[in-house]
Amino acid sequence: MRKLKKTASVGSKRRGTAKPPGSSSSSSTEQSKCLVAELPNALIIDILSRLPIRPLLNCKSVCKTWLHLMADPSFVRLHLERSPTTLLIQKTPFERKESTEMLLVEIVEEDISKPFYIEIIRLFPTKNFPDTDFRILNSCNGLLCLYEDSGDKSDMMVHVCNPVLGEYIDIPVVNTDKKFEHHLAFGFSSVSNQYKVLQTFYPEKDVTAAPCLAEIYTVGTGQWRSIGNASFRLQSLDANAFLHDSIHWIEYRSNTIGFVSAFDFVSEQFKLVALPPASQIHDGMGRCYPSSVGVIKGCLFMTNGVCIENEKFEIWVMEEYGIKESWTKKFVLSNLEVQHYVSYQPLYFLNSGEILICEDDESIGVYVPKLKRIHEAKFYKGKDCFLVTAHNPSFVSLQDIAEGEELTVLR
Questions:
Q1: Domain count of the chain?
Q2: How confident is the model at residue 17 (pLDDT cuts 50, 70, 90)?
Q3: What Rg value do the Cα atoms of the chain yield, rounded?
Q4: pTM: predicted TM-score of the whole model, two decimal places
Q5: Does 98 fall in a domain?
Q6: 217-232 average pLDDT score
Q7: Strands across the sheet containing 312-318
Q8: How far is CA 269 from CA 4, 201, 215, 248, 361, in A?
Q9: pLDDT at 255 over 90
């Protein structure tokens, strides 16, 4: 379970500790500076890219050389490859009841024999993200796609934001009052090195009167373009569901069964992801399955929801992306407090074999397989409902990828 919790805002500094009598802090500091200055830039980049996010942010204030190295494309790429998974918690989305801050939670596992602990970084509006009512749509390469609730308005705004760097751009979505069953998703093409926003919608209120349409906004172009009919319409996304140039979601085609649909941002084509044979998936009382899809430790996973009969549900992992036969039943969670409409969302697989799991957007607990239950001590419990997603922070700068867009730099 948790060992300790530390809290800091982005870029905060720790107070220095007193030196023992007789020590020469100035001379040792000068020697350290001299030694670091002699290291090749490539080695410094390699070292920095392995640091957790909070000390890494503090490193930006050490010297101009490090600051410039952390903006170097080779560092950005290397850090993105190694970026540890964190949890991003958004309190009361769309409702400013108490605080509009977000929490970036680092999970630190030093040794499998020792309990993990967490580091918390607080993210604030006007410093890390836009100061407006928004909801996290999804995460991709450390960038967040945020959207505002349009309500009765004909237009809405989508923000692409890097909360670590405090940068964002605005992407207008027009005529939303004439778009029905309207959904969006954010992704990246590794071939063209471009970020894109996808939207699907029906042009008529009667969704049977016309096919579902799809449009793409390529960041930097300033305009939406049609890509024709949508083979599969976007539905509610799990925020961490981007993998191998594709965004994934659950599409229900009847009251009893669902599919994992996907959109490839390279080919700009919709596709289905093959599932394990239905006979192998425990679906309880014949309810819809799968119930959620996402990415954990570089692999696509799906859950089949909660079985009301014997209070358990399964987590399946696709160990080789795109290979149907690689689906593996990784976990079977049992002894859950099963109620109608209660959802369980896996967030993180700990090295100990335990699972961080969100319970109905109200608390995050640790499922302990040996005990076959969620530990009583909550990892996190909010006063109100919250949104949580696995997120890999990055130093991908919108200044580099969004040329031609109006960029806002908050700090």
A1: 1
A2: very low
A3: 23
A4: 0.84
A5: no
A6: 95
A7: 292-296, 299-303, 312-318, 327-334
A8: 46, 16, 11, 12, 32
A9: no
